[in-house]
Design a protein that fits this description.
Triger factor/SurA peptide-binding fold; Chitinase A, domain 3; 11 helices; 7 strands; elongated
Length: 319
C-alpha cells in the first residue's frame, strides 16, 4: 500500500461546493448512480481556476471540466463494480495507515490535519470515506486486474536512457573514420568471403602503419565519406548499424576495429576520439526510468481495461 503515498499526499482534501443545485442523476453505472451535487462538488476547485481565464472562455472550459470530471466519477463507479465482483474492500487498518502516510508526507500532526479539513467543512471520517477510501480501492483493484498485464523490459529502459541523453545533449559520443568494402544484395558465400578477404588485407596495411585517411580515400567504397578520409564525425548511439554499435562504443580511443560485417558490407573503423557522457550512469537512474515506463504503461493499460469493463457494464450518462 506504500505505493499510494505520493498520490495521497498531493491533494488531501476537496473543497465543498457552496452553491445550491437542483438534485438529479447525471450518470448510472450498473446499480449505482452519480448525483449532480457530487459532480458540482468536484468542480469547485476547477471553478476557481476558471476565474483566471477571460470571461469569453469560461463557459466552454467549464463544460470541458464538467465532462472530464463526470468521466472520472463514472470510472470510479466502474472500479467499485469490479471491487464488489472481486470481493475487494478497504480495511480500517489500511485507511489508518493511509492517513499516517498523508500526515508524514505533508508534515502534519493529526490535529493539524483535522484543522485543515475542518476549514473546508470536512471531518477526518469524511476524508477517509470520500477521498482515501476510493483511492485505495482503485489502487487495489487495478493492482489485481491491470498490473499483471504490464511489464517493462531491460531494452526499453536502456532505450529511454539513450533517448534522454540525446534530448539533453549529454550522451557519450565518439569520432571515427571508416573504410567500407561493399557487398552486393543477396551476395553468395564466395563473394562474401572474397570481400572479407579484401577488408582483412586493408586492415593488415593499417596495422603496419598505413595512414587511415589516405587509405580510405584510395580504397573505401563509401562515396559520402571517402573524400574526407572516411571521417564520420562525432556521433552518439543510434547512428551506426546495431551489429557494430556496441563494439565501437566499447573501444578505446585509437583502436582499430574490423572487419565488422553489416548487411551492406564490411567496415574497418579507427576510433579517433571519445567524449564521455556527463549524465548520471545508467545503473544510478535505472530504477527511476523503470518506474517512469511502468507508470506510463499502467496508465495506458488502465484506460484499456476500464474500456473493457465499461463495455460489459450498463453505463448511462445523462448530462
Amino acid at each position: 500500500m506504500r505505493g499510494m503515498v505520493f498520490v495521497l499526499g498531493v491533494c488531501f482534501f476537496a473543497p465543498v461546493a457552496h452553491a445550491e443545485v437542483v438534485e438529479r442523476v447525471v450518470a448510472v453505472v450498473g446499480k449505482d448512480i452519480v448525483l449532480l451535487s457530487d459532480l458540482e462538488e468536484r468542480l469547485v476547485p476547477l471553478r476557481r481556476q476558471l476565474q483566471r481565464l477571460p470571461k469569453g472562455q469560461r463557459a466552454g472550459r467549464l463544460k470541458q471540466f464538467r465532462r472530464q470530471a463526470l468521466e472520472q466519477m463514472v470510472h470510479q463507479k466502474l472500479i467499485e463494480v469490479e471491487a464488489r465482483r472481486l470481493k475487494v474492500r478497504v480495511t480500517e487498518r489500511e485507511l489508518k495507515r493511509a492517513v499516517e502516510d498523508v500526515m508524514q508526507k505533508n508534515k502534519l500532526s493529526k490535529e493539524q490535519l483535522q484543522e485543515a479539513l475542518k476549514a473546508e467543512g470536512k471531518t477526518l471520517a469524511d476524508y477517509k470515506e470520500q477521498m482515501l477510501g476510493p483511492q485505495l480501492l482503485r489502487f487495489k483493484v487495478i493492482n489485481m486486474q491491470v498490473r499483471p498485464r504490464v511489464s517493462v523490459s531491460e531494452d526499453e529502459i536502456k532505450s529511454l536512457y539513450q533517448k534522454n541523453l540525446r534530448s539533453l545533449g549529454v550522451e557519450a559520443k565518439v569520432r571515427a573514420r571508416h573504410i567500407f568494402v561493399s557487398l552486393p544484395a543477396n551476395a553468395k558465400a564466395a563473394v562474401v568471403a572474397e570481400r572479407k578477404k579484401q577488408a582483412s588485407a586493408l586492415l593488415v596495411q593499417l596495422k603496419k602503419g598505413a595512414d587511415f585517411a589516405k587509405l580510405a580515400k584510395e580504397k573505401s567504397q563509401d562515396s559520402v565519406t571517402k573524400a574526407d578520409g572516411g571521417d564520420l564525425g562525432y556521433f552518439g548511439r543510434g547512428t551506426l548499424p546495431s551489429a557494430i554499435e556496441d563494439v565501437v562504443f566499447a573501444a578505446k580511443k585509437g583502436a582499430l576495429l574490423g572487419p565488422l560485417r553489416t548487411e551492406r558490407g564490411f567496415h574497418l573503423i579507427e576510433l579517433t576520439d571519445r567524449k564521455e557522457s556527463s549524465a548520471r550512469p545508467y545503473k544510478e537512474v535505472r530504477r527511476q526510468l523503470r518506474a517512469q515506463l511502468m507508470g506510463e504503461k499502467m496508465e495506458k493499460t488502465t484506460k484499456s481495461w476500464l474500456a473493457e469493463v465499461r463495455k460489459r457494464s450498463h453505463v448511462e450518462v445523462r448530462l
